[in-house]
Amino acid sequence: MDHLILRKLIEDGLVKEQNPSNLPPQILFFSGGSALTGLSAQLKKITPLSIHLISPFDSGGSTGKLRKAFNIPAFGDLRNRMVALMDEDARGYKEIAWLFKYRTAESDDKRKCLEEFNNLLEGNHLVFEKLPLLIKDYVIKNLIYFKNKFAREFDFCGASLGNILLTAVYFRNNKSLESMLKELYLLFPIRGIVRLTSTEDFQLFARLEDDTEVVGQHLITGKEVEPLCKKIVDLRLVKSLGEGVEVTCYLDKNNERYIKSADLICYPPGSFYSSIIANLLPKGAGKAVASTECNKVYVPNLGTDNEQYGMCLQESVETLIRYLRRDAGNSVETKTLLTHVLLDEDSSLYRGDLDTDFIQAHGIQVLKSRLVTGDRNTYYNPRLLAEALASLS
Half-sphere exposure (CA, 13 Å, Cβ side) for 60? Predict the structure, then answer.
């Protein structure tokens, strides 16, 4: 574990001593996006040591604008997860969360948007009103740094203050993700470990069943454009949105250490390809999972995932294993990559069933529990899911 994070947890009284046997469970997620926001809010009540490996390949919205302008990894999902894991009892939590989520107005008038951003820098905006003074000064200092360095190159219309803050801290630290994270953890009450799987400025490339090629996460998710109407048959990384040359991306060594220290590895609900599979593409990810002796659980999506067009539950499990084997190798036993599939007790919430012979042959255990409540049958109950995962760690 990162010693700085552990030391801060000890100082905050969330961990009593540096004795591994007394530490709360370290549950690691290959994830991204907003699907785990509710779950994260519950996890921080169970353990301050959940580990979240976030995809750096988002290419849409404010994140996409920053990536296009500065050739950097995506910080939007990293920011969202940090906010979800912040201590709600900490002084200024609501104001910090609002600041991280705040966006400037959408407009075609770039000069007007820059004026709004300049007004924010004066510190009189409501978003700064109740912030602790130390945090207010820190945020304004970094926003001023960003403006002075990049104002001529960047369109401030619809810009996320949280994304700009992280970008500023990243550049101030000479584009060192480690230094950026350490700085943020010293100041903000984040109750979990949030990291990018890689810092490479690459893009997602999907090949569909009719050989159509789609480049860019924002074109795969079906959120900014019409959803795909063909099945994805392959997902890879390419150098840029305009260049379909496949590239090799390597798992960060510190991420490898976190994977190997996990008490539970979870492939959670969320965008199947752009959040989960994307995080398994860096070379070394599958091998790190295979070498870790802990339970590894897949929690399939409920409802409709635009990226899983035409996929049934069985295909989802097989696809997950296939991408893990790309790196781990075909000779490793399946149970080193996936030990459990966790489902709600109502099997009608999923598309299709799991093949019993396949599950038994590969040594995978299927666990069913009450994970959905009320009539919200396209969402897991965050508390029940958090408790179920904690019981497997």
Answer: 16
